[in-house]
Amino acid sequence: VQMLNDREKVNRPNSQVGFIEFVICPMCESLVNLFPQLDHLAEDLAVNVTKWSQLWIDEAQPSEEAAGKVKARVEKISTRCQAVCRDFRGIQEHTNLKYV
């Protein structure tokens, strides 16, 4: 049985961090670029991935090295989310557009 299909071995919080990193974050970036008024989704995603990583640390009690690697991944995701939000807010300021 493959690791992600084995209910006994899969680590859900760590899987969620990977899923967010490789699927959800790029999709969210594209979505906010197309529809800037949805920038709150990127903010929520940054909070969500941080919570999943903390849950993983609490449950798995990884080594310092492993925890550091996951924290670096989470920081990269958060930075990408913040950049998309900043881009939208910069557009709003320069154009005086208000999205509801």
Automatic annotation (TrEMBL):
GO MF annotations, alphabetized: 3',5'-cyclic-nucleotide phosphodiesterase activity
Biological processes per GO annotation: signal transduction
Domain PDEase: start-end pairs: 1-63
Pfam families: PDEase_I (PF00233)
Stored InterPro entries: PDEase_catalytic_dom, PDEase_catalytic_dom_sf
Coiled coil ranges: none
Protein name, UniProt field: PDEase domain-containing protein
Organism: Polarella glacialis
